[in-house]
């Protein structure tokens, strides 16, 4: 580090994204990405006139994009905040509401970035342990007065909380914020977005990186009360008013309008997931009940770290966490049917070798 | 505001971008944008396979883009930080080095966002008045021990400091940072980028929004010592690791490599600027010596606020600052020759009416 670095960051440990090795071509099942193209409407939206017109600044209020999201989620554009990926949206939540003074809480096993944000913005974070079955300990969040941030479904477990449990947390204390990170919600869970009218302390965050096949376009959004969204926009205008490019706005607007394509892609992933789970179970794997585009698996004989390495040697990347409580598990993204057939083929040969 | 807003922001005044009215079609000369398309290489780079592959995350280290910039500016990729517009790059400078503890200084008349950043990140900011001729008071920056942020050329004056004066400021105290915001440098000023080896306390910030005709793509970068860049990347990875989309990376890499197109566009703007200045001077205007893609003009008879309104009525948007010291001036972006001919035509008719 340089001698100019803010001393508050001396001990900071930035988030480490999934590896992107370039030594060979891998089947990439380590970052919960999609191998499917985005909606054809995206390609159409990124037209020659749009690209040639990029000498102009885009609309910093992103109104067309916010209107399109609002229509799909049955809210008003004033209840929608849009960002450069849901990571930026979450970052703006921290900056706007928590930075330097607040107390928050989240599970011990969840998206690793929550702790990083807390460190970056000087927020006092407490973790509540997941129960032994990896479900969220709802009572802990009901009892505390801290602001809450929960991934629902959770990662890397893939498990989800029913909306009724989140309502219990919301009702327990209306003076603290509850941020629900719904990155994976489209793969079989119910969104809390319809609750923002009822609970002014709720912020629902979603992404275009999963079910809308647009990780590389960096698009995310929050739905909340219009007062909360106004605050987040005020901070955006005090940090980076033009946070979404003309290209991102066009891609996002086209993608969110194509609800039929979203449904088709989700249906395909769920079908592939169920088939993969069924086959792996028949091979002796224990698998948590996934509501996402990934599965979290362990095997009684095959150590997860070895499984990760053997898959990698065979050209398949997955994500292994060498951490307490979850080092027996491997997280595998659900790819195309062909990619998962290859995973199953390689897995069978690995199991034969260890048998 | 909501009752959840961080109390430190209760008095925050976000940056106000140039107006974007939609009541009619305007000649937009109010945001120092470009009416010229970006390099044709940008269109080529945003290919169908790239767009269809956006299910994948892009490289968060942005290495290809940083390599391309490094090559053009004769530095190493480790000396280059890239961001979602130079506003985000400046925001990361504040977050990484100044946030919550530092003292900085900048001119009373300059890019309005510096004060906004200072407010957002709790930084103690002092302004030093420009001299009566609007030149920067170099001695004030030599004397102070505060970190320095200077736009060079400055906005909205368009005036520039010679590199030798910036070296005096850099040498005066090597324990403080000097951030030089070179948004407009390509239109006739010398960059400080070659000095980063000599001065480890220098950060040079540039943008793709002006000379590269890509305001809508949100691309900016910083050049500094590799230690400083490492710090900025650490904070980026603790806030939003994937800050540039696959589309932005492709557009930026293609644009920066096309140095011939940049030179051609700059030459055209400078030529149009000189012709415009000459004609306006012949109409009695006083104009500061512009080294940018805009001019800052006043007239002995035509009040600047009136001039702004009359141009607007005639379909031409410019930027008027109703602020101390500069309310006699109007800032006019240099557009295409045709756009400037229209400005001159309308100006003549306005002058006839007031004569």
TrEMBL record, chains A, B:
The keyword rRNA-binding does not apply. Residues 25-345 form the Aminotransferase class I/classII large domain. Keywords: Amino-acid biosynthesis, Aminotransferase, Histidine biosynthesis, Pyridoxal phosphate, Transferase. It is an enzyme of class 2 (transferase). One of its GO terms (biological process) is L-histidine biosynthetic process. Its EC number is 2.6.1.9. The modification N6-(pyridoxal phosphate)lysine is found at residue 210. Pfam families: Aminotran_1_2 (PF00155). Gene3D superfamilies: Aspartate Aminotransferase, domain 1 (3.90.1150.10), Type I PLP-dependent aspartate aminotransferase-like (Major domain) (3.40.640.10). It catalyses: L-histidinol phosphate + 2-oxoglutarate = 3-(imidazol-4-yl)-2-oxopropyl phosphate + L-glutamate. GO terms for molecular function: histidinol-phosphate transaminase activity; pyridoxal phosphate binding. It comes from the Bacteria. Pathway: Amino-acid biosynthesis; L-histidine biosynthesis; L-histidine from 5-phospho-alpha-D-ribose 1-diphosphate: step 7/9. Its cofactor is pyridoxal 5'-phosphate. SUPFAM superfamilies: PLP-dependent transferases (SSF53383). InterPro entries: Aminotransferase_I/II_large, HisP_aminotrans, HistidinolP_aminotransfase, PyrdxlP-dep_Trfase, PyrdxlP-dep_Trfase_major, PyrdxlP-dep_Trfase_small. Belongs to the class-II pyridoxal-phosphate-dependent aminotransferase family. Histidinol-phosphate aminotransferase subfamily. PANTHER family: HISTIDINOL-PHOSPHATE AMINOTRANSFERASE, HISTIDINOL-PHOSPHATE AMINOTRANSFERASE 2. Homodimer. This is Histidinol-phosphate aminotransferase.
């Amino acid at each position: 580090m340089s001698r100019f670095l803010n001393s508050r960051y001396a001990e900071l440990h930035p988030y480490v994204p999934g590896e992107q090795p370039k030594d060979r071509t891998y089947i990439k099942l380590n970052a919960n990405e999609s191998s499917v193209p985005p909606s054809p409407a995206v390609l159409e939206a990124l037209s020659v006139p749009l690209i040639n017109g990029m000498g102009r600044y885009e609309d910093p209020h992103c109104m067309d994009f916010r209107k399109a999201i609002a229509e799909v989620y049955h809210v008003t554009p004033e209840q929608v905040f849009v960002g450069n990926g849901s990571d930026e949206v979450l970052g703006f939540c921290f900056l706007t509401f928590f930075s330097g003074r607040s107390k928050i809480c989240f599970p011990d096993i969840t998206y690793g970035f929550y702790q990083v944000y807390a460190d970056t913005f000087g927020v006092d974070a407490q973790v509540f342990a997941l129960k032994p079955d990896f479900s969220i300990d709802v009572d802990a969040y009901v009892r505390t007065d801290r602001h809450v941030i929960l991934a629902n479904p959770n990662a890397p477990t893939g498990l989800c909380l029913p909306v009724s449990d989140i309502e219990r947390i919301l009702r327990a204390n209306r003076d603290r914020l509850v941020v629900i990170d719904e990155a994976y919600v489209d793969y079989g869970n119910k969104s809390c977005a319809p609750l923002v009218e009822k609970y002014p302390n709720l912020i629902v965050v979603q992404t275009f990186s999963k079910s809308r096949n647009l990780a590389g376009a960096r698009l995310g959004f929050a739905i909340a009360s219009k007062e909360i969204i106004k605050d987040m926009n005020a901070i955006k205008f005090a940090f980076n008013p033009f946070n979404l490019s003309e290209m991102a706005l066009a891609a996002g607007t086209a993608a969110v309008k194509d609800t039929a394509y979203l449904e088709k892609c989700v249906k395909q992933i769920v079908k592939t997931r169920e088939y993969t789970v069924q086959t792996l179970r028949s091979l002796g794997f224990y698998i948590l009940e996934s509501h996402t585009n990934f599965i979290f698996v362990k095997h009684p004989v095959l150590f997860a770290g070895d499984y990760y390495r053997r898959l990698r040697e065979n050209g398949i990347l997955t994500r292994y966490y060498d951490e307490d409580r979850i080092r027996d598990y491997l997280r595998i993204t659900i790819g195309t049917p062909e990619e998962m057939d290859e995973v199953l083929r390689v897995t069978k040969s690995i199991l034969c070798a260890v048998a």
